[in-house]
Amino acid sequence: MPRGGEKLIAFVKQNAQCPVIVSGRGNNFIYVDTEADLDLALDVIINGKDKISACNAVDKILINSNLDNKEVFIKKLIVKLLESKIEIFGDATLASYNNVKAYESDAIWYKEFLDYKIVIGSVDSTQEAIEKINKYSGGHSASIITKNDETATVFMENVDSAAVYQNASTRFTDGGQFGLGGELAISTDKLHHRGPMGLHHLVTNKWYIKGNGQIR
Questions:
Q1: pTM of the model as a whole
Q2: Which CATH number fits the domain that encloses residue 69?
Q3: 207 CB-near residues (< 8 Å, 6+ apart)
Q4: Quick check: helix, strand or coil at residue 80?
Q5: Domain span holding position 114
Q6: Computed from CA positions of residues 62, 68, 72, 76, in that sequence, does the dihedral angle turn out positive or negative?
Q7: Cis upstream peptide for 193 (omega within 30°)
Q8: Cβ neighbours of residue 74 closer than 8 Å, sequence gap 6 or more
Q9: Cα–chain-centroid distance for residue 122?
Q10: Nearest in space to 32 (alpha carbons), one of 146, 176, 189, 190
Q11: pLDDT tens for residues 119-172?
């Protein structure tokens, strides 16, 4: 289980003689739905950036273009991010706002920053948000901000991330927070274990079977 940068992980995957559990990148998303509590959304986004070096930090924000009071919300969000000294990049729609920089390439959506940087973008539907997250994210964590439980269910069932949230910060994706003990890695591969890894994921099980003459 390599703990380190991408070069170390790539080397171990290429040369290991045994199964490798990969501690993958973060690049986590928060999607602000049309039925979001906007004050809650601001709190969750800012909390998601309170520790930039963590793999559960948020790097990308998607905002539904049909959100009521969208202009007011985006301006408040920009002010809050700037107060935290976070550099803001935006897509073609959101780069028109003051203090939001246009990015040069869509490749930025793939990047895990581990830095005081964030990207905000506009989507027209929950489905578009799901597709964008599944295309660009690291498969670590994604959160939807919405009061609509049905919308949240669709989002959470279709986003291909190790941890999915409704109205909560991605910063909770942590072995200690999940009650798994001291965290050893975050696997973003399909195998073996997805999500925070604690001690009990690294030990084998012993099965005890008691019978009274059962046969197959």
A1: 0.87
A2: 3.40.309.10
A3: none
A4: helix
A5: 25-173
A6: negative
A7: no
A8: 63, 94, 97, 120
A9: 17
A10: 146
A11: 999 999 999 999 999 999 988 899 999 999 999 999 999 999 989 999 999 999
Identity of the amino acid at 210: K
Can you tell me the distance from the alpha carbon of 57 to that of 81, in angstroms, rounded to the nearest whole number? 14
- Is residue 169 domain-resident? yes
Q: Which residues of the chain have pLDDT under 70?
A: 24, 185-195
**DSSP labels, 150-206:** HHHHHHHHHS--SEEEESS-GGG-STTTTTS-S---EE-SSSS--EE--GGGSS---
Closest of 64, 57, 99 to residue 80, by C-alpha: 99
Domain count for the chain: 1
**Which stretch of DSSP H or E encloses residue 30?**
strand 28-32
Alpha-carbon gap, residue 34 to 73, rounded angstroms: 12
Nearest-Å Rg of the Cα atoms of the chain is: 20
